[in-house]
Write a structure and sequence with these properties.
Shape of chain B: globular
Number of strands of chain A: 5
Number of domains of chain A: 2
Distance between the termini of chain A: 25 Å
Oligomer: heterodimer
Radius of gyration of chain A: 20 Å
Low-confidence stretches of chain A: none
CATH architecture of the largest domain in chain B: Alpha-Beta Complex
Largest interface: A-B, 94 and 77 residues
Chain lengths: ~220, ~210
């Protein structure tokens, strides 16, 4: 969806606020929000694409005025409600009002190292040949899906070159909506700055995105 | 005793809205048994104490010192990095890109905050912020200048927007005058920003 998360190429946000010797967290509640998000993710009640979509579908004005861990917190609130684990009323009053719903698993402290080490690999072998190869010229599709996508607006309808072929990965556009993983070939596509931004662009810059096969057509 | 109890658990008037909101969410999730608060502590401790850019610095220093490792890192970064023990969440599919005299690499995630956790730890606030995410792809040279990095006008700048589950690590250029330095000493020159591409490796004089 064309949400506020899709920031590439926007202007007017001001200088980058660089902080020397930045702490990992800026407040105690950020630690809890971070840990809660990962611990709930580990329950298997949703996948990473659903959790990104929950954050990115916040109303644009709210997304842009929320801090990072505020966005994460609001994302978890939406996810637990959508999954039927917590009700809106419970969030409003700040306490549990009903019996818990069944849950696949609960992350225990002693399992944290193993779970983090395992991570969540997105590669899924499908035994289907890749449509494109390194050096091919491709054009990204012009599309504006209502649902989740990882094709940023600035890189739609643009011609670039296949630079890397990564194998077949879970398709976020489907996985975010519970439509299965539908793995596809994933490529790094490199564009010249001028292709993306026009003749005024710095001729020495180039920009790549990682794009699934269905985002691309031959050019 | 009674007064203290009241203060700790009922009087939250000194807390901000988001503090109350996170506290409420945690207490509901714990009460329902979905979350073990000790697991939250363990997750936070991992990323506050155990994981960070010192990991990535070891990878880069080894690549500088050992040509065979450098080749492996360029060919299969996930395996080469795993061989040093840095594996897992947000580093499942790694690619290492190398700065040269002619080309400088810089990494961004315009859509969210994708970042190679096992080698760099959690991202700094600026990496996740709208100013960096919006401009890194449009005006990377201007962004680099904000970080105090001024490259020759002829140096090509290559921006990697991490839009999938592939995570990018920049191998900065090895500074001159570092021949014969140990891997350990070389790692001291490798900053977090130099592995994102918003900085350069430190000169050996700077750390002596």
């Amino acid at each position: 969806m064309n949400g506020a998360q899709d920031l590439g190429g926007m202007m007017g946000f001001g200088p980058i606020a660089i902080e020397q010797d930045e702490p990992w967290f800026h407040a105690a509640w950020e630690r809890r929000a971070f840990g809660l998000t990962l611990a709930m993710g580990a329950t298997g009640s949703w996948n990473i694409d659903m959790s990104r979509h929950a954050r990115e579908s916040l109303p644009p004005a709210e997304y842009l005025t929320s801090s990072y861990y505020e966005i994460w917190t609001k994302g978890v609130e939406r996810l637990v409600v959508a999954a039927g684990l917590v009700s809106r009323e419970e969030l409003t009053c700040g306490q549990s009002l009903a019996e818990p719903a069944p849950i696949k698993r609960v992350l225990k402290a002693e399992d944290v190292p193993v779970v983090l080490a395992r991570g969540g690999p997105a590669a899924r072998p499908i035994g289907q040949p890749a449509r494109f190869t390194v050096g091919d010229r491709v054009r990204t599709r012009t599309m504006h899906p209502q649902g989740h996508t990882r094709l940023p607006r600035y890189a739609r309808g643009k011609t670039g070159v296949v630079e890397l072929v990564h194998g077949t990965h879970v398709l976020p556009d489907a996985n975010a909506h519970g439509q299965g993983e539908q793995p596809q070939w994933l490529y790094t596509i490199c564009f010249s700055g001028r292709e993306l931004w026009g003749e005024q662009a710095d001729p020495t810059i180039s920009v790549s995105i990682d794009a699934w096969e269905s985002y691309l057509e031959p050019a | 005793m009674g007064h203290d109890h009241h203060h700790d658990h009922d009087d939250h008037s000194h807390l901000s809205e988001i503090e109350l909101r996170v506290r409420a969410l945690e207490s509901i999730l714990v009460e329902k048994g979905y979350v073990d608060p000790a697991a939250i502590d363990a997750l936070v401790e991992t990323y506050e104490v155990k994981v960070g850019p010192r990991n990535g610095a070891k990878v880069v220093a080894k690549a500088w010192a050992d040509p065979a490792y450098r080749e492996w890192l360029r060919a299969d970064a996930t395996a080469a990095i795993a061989s040093l023990g840095f594996i897992g969440r947000q580093g499942e599919h790694m690619v290492a890109v190398e700065n040269t005299r002619d080309e400088h690499n810089i990494v961004v995630c315009t859509l969210c905050s994708c970042y190679p956790w096992p080698v760099l730890g959690l991202p700094p606030v600026w990496y996740k912020s709208a100013p960096y995410r919006s401009r890194a792809v449009l005006d990377p040279r201007g962004v680099l200048a904000e970080f105090g990095v001024h490259l020759p006008e002829t140096t090509r700048i290559r921006v990697w927007d991490s839009t999938a589950e592939v995570r990018y690590l920049v191998i900065p250029r090895r500074p001159a005058g570092t021949e014969g330095m140990s891997e350990e000493a070389l790692a001291e020159l490798v900053t977090r920003d130099s592995m994102i591409g918003t900085g350069l490796a430190r000169q050996p004089e700077a750390v002596r």
